[in-house]
Amino acid sequence: MKGGITEPEGFLAAGVRAGIRSKGLDLALLSCEEGPVPAAGAFTTSRTRAPPVILTMRHLRKERRLGAIVANSGCANSFTGERGMRDAKRMAELTAELLGLKTHQVGVASTGMIGTYLPMEKVEAGIREAVKKLSPSRRASHLAAQAILTTDRFPKEVAVRVETEEGTPITIAGMAKGAGMIRPRLKTATMLVFLTTDAKVDPLFLKTSLQTSVDRTLNMITVDNDTSTNDMVLMMASGKAENEELKEDAGFQHGLDFVLTELAKMIVKGAEGATRMMEVKVKNAREGEAKKAALAVAGSNLLKAALFGGDPNWGRIIAALGYSGARFDPRRLTLRVKSERGEVTLVERGRPIGGPDLPEAAEVMKAEEILFEIDLGEGRDEATAWGCDLSYDYVRINSRYRT
Fold this sequence. Notes:
Elements: E1 11-16, E2 27-32, E3 37-44, H1 51-63, E4 65-66, E5 68-73, H2 81-99, E6 106-111, H3 120-132, H4 138-147, E7 156-163, E8 169-178, E9 186-187, E10 191-197, H5 203-216, E11 221-222, E12 232-237, H6 250-269, E13 277-285, H7 290-298, H8 301-309, H9 315-323, E14 334-339, E15 342-348, E16 351-352, H10 359-364, E17 369-375, E18 381-388, H11 392-399
Parallel strand pairs: 5-6, 10-12, 11-18, 13-17
Antiparallel strand pairs: 1-2, 2-5, 3-4, 3-9, 3-12, 7-8, 8-10, 13-18, 14-15, 14-17, 15-16
Helix pairs in contact: 2-3, 5-6, 7-9
């Protein structure tokens, strides 16, 4: 479907400029017309979690329901101590007051510079303005998606309609930000993802379904192997679709997987300085080994550099597999590179194929999206990870991020 987080019935959004950043929209608000509804989250496992993350985790533990999410860009409110927690609480309190909610029914998220304080006068004015501009329109959804961006190259929105097992149409949608400091390690994502659905969902199923999908998608992307202090995924379910309450449902899981997969790919494609995306698919691995192998390859800085140059240096993939911790017999390994420009087998059953120049593989590597397919030949386990190249622009952006 076209549109974003306001496509599911029952949701309003707004994106405004509060002046937290030097330019552009920088405060987003998502609200449910039904008031507090079943909600679930996944949060960074960093030991230096930011106050908004800690606060929102507490809010969800209290009731597993949210009526609104307020998020700002331009300041992560991370490593800011007691003042940072007071500021995060004030964002929740003011939003709740203006929308007729309880404070613990508001999720709070922040992204931007670590170690700086929020300009609360500007933040509070932005929240008041955002409440006035709440709308179910696609434009409102798009403005909210813009307001959470930092160094992202474009806003990220996805909306789909699927059927539950009983045949009721439901809508699932999401928006995301993330360009650098991306290697989420999320548990029951700097990276922010907000999701909505009009399905009626049991809160426990919503939580387990979200974590299952996050493990398959967002936890399988890497830009630079750095995990943020502010990563967060939040989902709200309005129940407006009038389906039987879902306590398990393959259709819902499929739709959620699709939305998060698309958002995950968008994050990688829109990463700081990225020019190429790679998909690393590992198959026929021993049980529990495919994920380790796929993430090691997608996260290899040497391979990322080769990807930027279009260099089919497959030895770097072999090296990453070797240190990944995955158990496999190198003599059974088959490696292929694929793109819209063709397909080349680089290694077959442990034997290198072709000469050192690899002109055919170099042609395949000229595409913007590259697939590395790795067959370990030892079992049935499969996993897919996504990564991007490391370019000159990535270094330029991060060498002067503060200035």
